[in-house]
Design a protein that fits this description.
The protein is mainly alpha-helical. The protein is 74% helix and 0% strand. It has one domain.
Length: 140
């Protein structure tokens, strides 16, 4: 079980490092993607465009390294929940957006993205539950 948790935590962290770095490479494009959701406007959108990728990279590194696991995995899980809710509201409002998730600018395939996020939420939920339940147990 320890090996499975290690692989799961490394993969989970790597997804967010990849996503965060892709956003950091084009902060203006990601700020536009944040604005496209029509949930926040300036100056909040550009601030989020800098904060979100920094959070993803930092929490992803901490998750992979095995440091502050409860907080880092919980932060990634919370960000997934918020982003999935934002995707759902954009879909319900009929917005044709680009999410900027991995640095891409193509139109969103809502069912595919929400399905992907639900899978990641399940992984994050499993890891969060495991690390909160066994906070004194070895997690590497």
């Amino acid at each position: 079980m320890k090996f499975f948790l290690l692989i799961l935590r490394l993969a989970f962290g790597a997804v967010f490092i990849w996503s965060g770095i892709a956003k950091l490479k084009d902060p203006i494009g990601f700020a536009d993607a944040v604005r496209n959701f029509e949930l926040v406007s300036d100056p909040v959108a550009p601030a989020l465009a800098l904060l979100i990728p920094a959070l993803e990279v930092t929490a992803g590194i901490l998750t992979m390294a095995g440091f502050l696991l409860q907080g880092s995995v919980a932060a990634l899980l919370l960000s997934l929940l918020v982003f999935t809710a934002a995707l759902g509201t954009a879909w319900l409002r009929g917005l044709d957006i680009s999410c900027g998730c991995f640095g891409g600018s193509g139109a969103v395939n809502y069912p595919l993205m929400i399905t992907r996020n639900v899978g990641l939420i399940m992984v994050g939920g499993f890891l969060t539950r495991r690390f909160f339940r066994n906070s004194k147990a070895s997690v590497s």
